[in-house]
Amino acid sequence: MIEKIVNPKELRHWDGLIDVYWIYTSGTAGDYFFKKLKEEGKFTAAKCKKCGRVYFPPRIYCEKDLSETEFIEVSGEGTVRAFTVARLDVYEKPLEKPEIYAIIDIDGTDGCIIHLLGEVEPEEVKVGMKVKPVLKEKEKREGRITDILYFKPA
Amino acid sequence: MAVGKKEISCPPSAPGTPLSEEDIRKGRVTYVEDHPDLRYSWTAGQAISRFLNGLKEGKILGVKCNKCGRIMVPPRMFCELCYKPIDEWVELKDTGTVKTFSVSYIDPDARPLKEPIIVAVIEIDGASPNMGFMHILGEVKPEEVYIGMKVKAVWKPEEEREGAITDIKYWKPLR
Amino acid sequence: MEVEVIKGLKFHKKQDVAIVGAGMTTWKRRLNETGRELSYLAVKQALEEAGITLDDVEMVVMGSAPDTFDGFTMKGEYLLDGAGGSDRPYIRVFVGGGTGVFAPIAGYWHVASGLADVCLVVCEEKMSSCYPHPQSAFKYIWDPILERPLKPNLIWIFALEMRRYMHVHNIKHEDIALVSVKNKANALDHPCAQVAGKITVEDVLNSEPMALPVRRLDVSPPSDGAAALVMVAPHIARQLTDEPVWVTGVGWALDTTWWTNRDLYFPRYVAEAAKMAYRMAHITDPRKEIDVAEPYDPFDYKELHHMEGLGLCKKGEAPILTREGVTARDGDLPVCPSGGLMGVGNPIAATMGVKACEIYWQLAYRAGKRQVAKEVTTGVCQAWGDLMQIGTVMVMSNKR
Q1: Do C28 and B18 touch (CB under 8 A)?
Q2: Least packed by Cβ within 10 Å: which of B94, C192, C359, C366?
Q3: Are B29 and A25 an interchain contact pair (Cβ–Cβ within 8 Å)?
Q4: Touching partners of C (3+ C-beta pairs < 8 Å)
Q5: To the nearest whole angstrom, how far is the Cα of A102 from the nearest Cα of chain C?
Q6: Distance (Å, rounded) from C-alpha A39 to C-alpha B171?
Q7: Considering only CB atoms, which chain A residues are within 8 Å of C40?
Q8: Domains (ranges, CATH) in chain A?
């Protein structure tokens, strides 16, 4: 039988990083959605030409039957389906102010979005609450999901 | 229906929207960047730990499987052909033969290097045929390297060795 | 020590497998579509050619290579909805570059076992997400302790193998460069090609040195793209078409990760995989019985290396066949009539589009301008991946 190293100080480790940098393009549907949001402050959804399901965020294909979709405009207002109040940040340090994340069903679509809720106290949030989006000022928008600052009670 | 369709040419179209580097830089399409913070501490395991400790002492260690008789380097805790634990550790020489080599003009990110690096797979003397590992050649010009060339390891001075593959600075030709 | 891998393998199957449709997107260095949208575009084309809709598809196989390129861990799950994977059994397979032929092999298992009658196989790759160059993700394939401290580039391993291959058989770089010239010219007839063009042997020998003997025009470029295939059982194939293409043999084999302990001049892993596929397809003399071949060619010398591994010629004979024009589209054994990876592009897993899909189109006589001159009955496609490790082989025929 061969001797094994049993003293943990003699077992070696090698430290290293995996150092990569990614650029994610938004894609055909995503690019249309973000450009419309940035330039005109309007929300887009996609309706399947065959079965009529409305997708939000929009896609160029229908998930159920792989048919083409067409882009339609929606108001961006919605209803809170579920929410949670975060008091710690990504590194488990306490946040100055608690942040409220919610799943919001967007009116006129079969889809939903996860985003922050603002201008409301955690105790006042209820499932079923109506909310509407608050966008950044036009000059500050970049064409990203953060162009929506938060959703506030309607 | 695809019945009897000999006249069509496939693929019938090539869908997709090409972009150039400039389209990204000038922001003609929307995108998001991410730069993850992934830190690792890989364990060397039993066999390579002992191999690295051997390098710190200025020795190249191999292992022997008594069933197939192979003396293997880099060492491992079990023979992968016989699928049984290895039987003993063997000290090998620090000379070897070049099995194949290449002259590289690029760094790990594909950027050009000022001075080319000569990399080779070196079969270690004392181990079974074809047993070796990859390392750098030095003190030799690219045109002088050939397959079958005998080389010897050039070690870092003892105080600078840390138990890593770089404790051997490079391999030089045995003239 | 040689190990006989396929001795004792039994090839029981419930039903034969036919391919009735294929599709692919364009392959370019950078595409705007997301991975899901690319998968959708390829699947749409494949379903149209086959003449079925998504409702007819019973199971889906996705092939996609390292997550580090696209930047999504759990990449298979991310690509699911664009690939038609919602509401049906869906699985992702991954063996590095070998995925291009391994994904159709996994699709073959689904149908041959009788578990599904219609299986959709999709492969997608978006290498451009890795910025500035996908090479920065390749450096993590090396061993962190024994190899990464030497700061290697993946091209080194190809250069080391190419040097060994050239040395053992005494081959000149000029003969290897002929492959690059042939494939880039063949790709001029492919609508999705990224780097097609007319070049000469001198252009290759004078191009920028990367890691000698490999020069820039010996290497295929990174690409974004997707491809799809539809595999069906015999009774479904009969309803859809008069001329399905049958999968007659599959094989796959891997070699050890201790690549420095192998002699690199011959791809043993490809030979083992080919033995398995030929045994299933009842092929005893590949050189005579194979009419068209698509071996994996990420580098020009790799086409020759793999031709020998597939048994299409004797060891060291491949460059002679290329020089004599035997492997041209109008030759006796056309090799890479699509233009291969050297001419069309290299999106790792999505290379299924110029390997499996191309052999299918050739045997169905639908390759348009790329159609080879001779009559074709049997074809073979092969893929390779990792640190010189995997060989995956698929043999197809248009006669049952």
Answers
A1: yes
A2: B94
A3: yes
A4: A, B
A5: 22
A6: 62
A7: 60-61, 66
A8: 27-153 (2.40.50.140)
| pLDDT tens digits, one per residue of C93-119 | 998 889 999 999 999 999 999 999 999
Cα–Cα distance between C251 and C274 in angstroms, integer? Answer: 6
What CA–CA distance (Å, rounded) separates C267 from C253?
A: 11
Task: With beta carbons under 8 A apart, name residues in chain A contacting C81.
Answer: 59, 63
Can you tell me the mean pLDDT for B16-36?
Answer: 89
pLDDT at residue C248 above 60? yes
Per-residue pLDDT at C2 exceeds 50? no
Model confidence, pTM: 0.92
Please write the tens of the pLDDT for every residue from A31-62: 999 999 999 999 999 999 999 999 999 999 99
Residue of C nearest to B168 (CA): C150
Do residues C42 and C229 touch, judged by C-beta distance below 8 A? no
Dist CA A66 CA A33 (whole Å): 20
Is residue C181 within 8 A of residue C336, CB to CB? The reply is no
> A23 — contact with chain C (CB < 8 Å)?
yes
Domains, chain C, in order of start with CATH, read: 17-132+222-240 (3.40.47.10)
- Neighbors of chain B with 3 or more C-beta pairs under 8 Å: A, C
Question: A68 is written with which tokens?
Answer: 């083409």
ipTM metric? 0.90
Residue with tokens 């690409």: C223
Nearest neighbour of B38 by CB, restricted to A10, A18, A143: A18
Q: Which residues of C touch A33 (CB under 8 A)?
A: none
**Nearest residue to A151 (alpha-carbon basis) of A105, A119, A106, A110:** A119
Q: Does A61 touch chain C (CB under 8 A)?
A: yes
- Separation of alpha carbons C83 and C352, rounded Å: 15
